[in-house]
Amino acid sequence: MHLKDFEQIKDKINTQYLFGSDSSLANLYLLKDVLNILCYQKNDILFRQYDFTDNIKGFAFPISLNPDFTIEEVFEHFFKEINKNSDENIHFCYFTEEQKALFDKFLQKKGHSVEWNSKREDSDYLYLQSDLADLPGSEYQKKRNHVSKFIKKHEKEYSFTYFDASTITPKIKEDFVKVTKKWLCEFSGNIDNTVANESKSMEFAVNHLSSFDFFGGILYIKEKPRAITLASKISEKVIDIHFEKCLSEAAKDGGYAMINNLFAKECKKFKYINREEDLGIEGLRKAKLSYKPEIILDKYYGKLI
């Protein structure tokens, strides 16, 4: 699928069962080459097929593009499609607990089952928007301290600009790209393919806000951009944070906590903020847990029996 194909279907998606970052159209497009994702439309269904690792391979949960389809009708189309590969092992990936349960129930009627497993490092972290915006109670005291530290040091020097496709200006776009380039430079020559690809994806996204209805924010200190964030909608309840970067000089003053908090305040119409997985990185897991996720959304991988 090309960019124009994603643009054409973004308003057709039935988001009822979608909470995971893998079901974000923006991620499907931005990561299609990285994760070797094949996306295609057939019978008003968006099929997603992965071929990346031993776990991340096979078909992901089918996404309906027809609001009148029941989940059984979606699975009927899905089952016919996957059985075209009947001579091969049929694998599934990125199913949530709810999606897995629905599919298992459907397969029982067909006399089939799936042998499922999961990996903790692939679980998404979902937070209540109100928690990230308000930082309530004693469990968020440390986060409030980080925000207070930043405000105390930069009280009359900082500002925050929210933007989307309808409000972005050439200046905002330029400032966003400045942060991406400086963030990349801070790796001091230790740039691997993951970092380089992420930098390219950030620049692509800010130049194609309307393609996936991206929206984001920039944190300024003394009118200089020092942190950025960018998100898109997964459903009417959930947004996905694709990028959140803060330059080191601002990060040491609590810049990450500040932009996290300020952007969350702009997202009042959503219930959950998905901040994606921790990739099994100990420091990243500790940081994500410190924000007290409302849901740790496990992902399941399986093989058809």
In words, what does this structure look like?
Helices cover 38% and strands 25% of the residues. It has 305 residues and is of the alpha+beta class. The protein has a 7-stranded mixed β-sheet with strand order 8-9-10-11-12-7-13, with helices on both faces. Strand 2 (45-51) and strand 3 (57-59) form a beta hairpin. Helix 6 crosses helix 11 and helix 7 runs antiparallel to helix 8 (193-206).
**Which structural class do you get from the secondary structure elements?**
alpha+beta
Strand content: 25-35%
Provide a count of the helices: 12
Number of strands: 14
Mean pLDDT: 95
Distance between the termini: 30 Å
Q: Tell me, what's the shape?
A: globular
**Sheet bearing the most strands, described?**
7 strands, mixed
Order of helices and strands: HHEEEEHEHEEHHEHHHEEEHHEHEE
Rg (CA only): 20 Å
How are the strands of the largest sheet arranged?
8-9-10-11-12-7-13
Low-pLDDT residue spans: none
User: How much helical structure, as a percent, in the residues?
Assistant: 25-40%
Give me some keywords for this one.
305 residues; alpha+beta; seven-stranded mixed sheet; four-stranded antiparallel sheet; 12 helices; 14 strands; 38% helix; globular
Task: Please render the helix and strand layout as text.
Blueprint lengths: L2 H7 L15 H6 L6 E6 L2 E7 L5 E3 L3 E2 L6 H12 L8 E5 L1 H14 L3 E5 L5 E5 H6 L6 H13 L4 E7 L5 H16 L7 H14 L2 H4 L2 E7 L2 E10 L4 E9 L1 H4 L3 H11 L6 E3 L7 H9 L4 E3 L2 E5 L1
Parallel strand pairs: 11-12
Antiparallel strand pairs: 1-2, 2-3, 2-4, 5-14, 6-14, 7-12, 7-13, 8-9, 9-10, 10-11
Helix pairs in contact: 6-11, 7-8
